[in-house]
Amino acid sequence: MSRSGFKGSITTTGRSEALRLDKALFKAHPEFRQKAKLRAYVLGPGTMLVTLDRDEAADDDAAERDPVVAAYLAFLERDMAAHPERLQPFTRGEVARIEALTAGVSVSDDDAIPDDVTL
Fold first, then answer.
1. 3-state DSSP: the chain helix, strand, coil percent, rounded to 5?
2. Against a cut of 0.85, is the pTM above it?
3. What are the CA-CA distances from residue 116 to residues 74, 107, 119 (Å)?
4. Are strands 16-21 and 47-52 parallel, antiparallel or unpaired?
5. What is the CA radius of gyration of the chain?
6. Which H or E element spans position 17?
7. What whole-number percentage of the chain has pLDDT above 70?
8. Taking the CB of residue 19, how many other CB atoms lie within 10 A of it?
9. Which of helix, strand or coil describes residue 43?
10. Residue 60: pLDDT above 60?
11. Residue 26 burial (C-beta neighbours within 10 Å; 0-12, 13-18, 19+)
12. Helices and strands (H and E) in the chain: how many
C-alpha cells in the first residue's frame, strides 16, 4: 500500500450502494478477491475499517478478534519489518520499572476483561 492508500468512490450497483476501489488494491492484496465477504466498522466520522469476514470454523477466535487491534498490529508488523533500526531493547531501568508496576499482579490467558473496562 502506498502512504496515501488506495483511492475509490461510492457508487450504486443494482439496489445497493457499493465501494469501488482502485484495481491496484486487489493486485497488491489478493485476499480481497471478488466475491470475498467483508465486514465494515465505522471508527469515527469519515473513517471506516474494512476487513475480510472470515468463516468462524476456520478461525476459532473470530468472535474475540478486534479488527482495530488487528489493524494496529499489522501496521506495527509492517513498520518493524521496514524499519528494524527503530527497534530498541528495554533498558535495565525500564525493566525494573515494569517489574515494580506489575509486582503482585497475577494474570492468566483464560482471564476475561470485563465489558466495562475501557482500554
1. 35, 20, 45
2. no
3. 26, 18, 10
4. unpaired
5. 20
6. strand 16-21
7. 87
8. 13
9. strand
10. no
11. middle
12. 3, 4
| pLDDT tens digits, one per residue of 19-33 | 888 888 888 888 888
C-alpha cell, 61: 477466535
In three state form, how does the secondary structure of 43-74 look?
EECCEEEEEECCCCCCCCCCCCCCHHHHHHHH
Separation of alpha carbons 23 and 39, rounded Å: 20
Task: Find out whether 17 and 10 touch, Cβ atoms under 8 Å.
Answer: yes
C-alpha cell belonging to residue 112: 476475561
Total residues found in the chain within this entry: 119
Burial class (CB in 10 A: 0-12, 13-18, 19+), 10: exposed
3-state secondary structure 93-106: HHHHHHHHHHCCCC
| The amino acid at 45 | P
